[in-house]
UniProtKB/TrEMBL annotation:
Residues 124-175 form a coiled coil. Residues 274-325 form the FP protein C-terminal domain. It comes from Spodoptera frugiperda (Fall armyworm). Keywords: Coiled coil. InterPro entries: FP_C, Znf_FYVE_PHD, Znf_RING/FYVE/PHD. Pfam families: Baculo_FP_2nd (PF25298). This is Uncharacterized protein LOC126912431. SUPFAM superfamilies: FYVE/PHD zinc finger, Tropomyosin. The keyword Coiled coil applies.
């Protein structure tokens, strides 16, 4: 709280003249509160209108003339007040000096920043050049990725074509064996006659195959055993082959003693499958046993499976078909 020097009315907020140190409310000071707040550091130099025009003295000398040669109490009070005002003014000097120093420091920092601007611009140009270079490289990488993607698609198409070609070759290879019969379990002897062995088997299974109906007959070594050689016989037509295989399968206990050889062991007459189909058959048997399929057999060189008597018959042509056994 203070009393306005002009209107002698108490006020809560106002401004103080930095010269005469008198307080004024905002209307008497001739400035709005917002305008005064915006002065910032210039508040420390604000003067009232009387001080600006020189109509008032900072020391506010008394209007009454003192008695000559005598210092009154009023004179002492006035001197004390003026000294207090001067003290207040002097106390504001360190802050003013500090403000000036701050301004000088800010100017020095601005000069330093100005000096550093060329280096900063050079660094910024280098960053821009680096970014442009990286952008170009990224573009090249994207083009290379697109090229690789196209190459990948081409490889996928070639793989599909290769798989089809391999499947076709495999089917052709198996088709060439449609008239063949594979006889397993007949031990090799030094003086054997394969036509005689086949004749004895035909007698046992009650299916006649004359020698002139045989295109060729030979021992073929197995991949997993060179000593165990199966007999491969090619007949004139599939019908004769089917009849011979069917008759041999009806004979449940065809052994080596049935063809006049010593020892023990069964003789098996089967379709002549390719090596790939033999592997596929073995895998199908293991999976069928695991999944409780009751029937698995080969007919016309095709692998067939059936879960029970009422379920449909499945044809297994490739490993992908093994998924159907479930």
């Amino acid at each position: 709280m203070f009393v306005c020097h002009r209107c002698d009315i108490e006020a809560r907020d106002g401004v103080q003249c930095t010269l005469c140190l008198n307080w004024y409310d905002f209307p008497c000071a001739g400035i709005t509160e917002a305008g005064y707040r915006k002065l910032g550091d210039r508040k420390a130099t604000w003067k009232c209108s009387a001080c600006k025009t020189g109509l008032a003295s900072p020391l506010n000398p008394p209007t009454s003339k003192p008695t000559a040669g005598k210092v009154t109490q009023v004179d002492l009070d006035n001197i004390f007040q003026e000294l207090k005002k001067l003290t207040d003014q002097v106390s504001a000097l360190p802050q003013l000096v500090e403000n000036v120093r701050s301004i000088q420091i800010d100017i020095s920092e601005l000069k330093t920043l100005k000096d550093e601007m060329p280096d900063f611009k050079k660094s910024l140009d280098h960053v821009h050049a680096t970014v442009d270079e990286l952008t170009d490289k990224l573009t090249d990488v994207e083009q290379e990725i697109q090229s690789l993607q196209k190459t990948k698609e081409d490889i996928t198409r070639l793989q599909q074509r290769l798989e089809k070609i391999e499947t076709t070759l495999h089917e052709n290879d198996q088709r060439l064996r449609l008239n063949n019969v594979e006889i397993k379990g007949v031990p090799v002897t030094s003086s054997e006659n394969l036509f005689t062995i086949v004749s004895k088997i035909c007698t046992k299974v009650n299916c006649e195959v004359r020698q002139e109906q045989i295109n060729y007959i030979a021992r073929v070594p197995q991949r997993n055993s060179k000593d165990n050689k199966n007999i491969i016989m090619s007949l004139h037509n599939r019908y004769l082959r089917d009849d011979f295989i069917a008759a041999a399968k009806k004979c449940k206990n065809l052994t080596i003693t049935d063809i006049g050889l010593n020892g023990s062991g069964n003789i098996y007459v089967n379709d002549h499958l390719t090596f790939e189909n033999k592997q596929l058959l073995n895998k199908a048997k293991l999976l069928a046993k695991e999944k409780n399929f009751s029937y698995i057999w080969v007919k016309n060189c095709k692998i067939l499976v059936k879960k029970n008597t009422t379920s449909p018959t499945l044809v297994i042509k490739s490993e992908s078909d093994l998924k159907r056994i479930s």
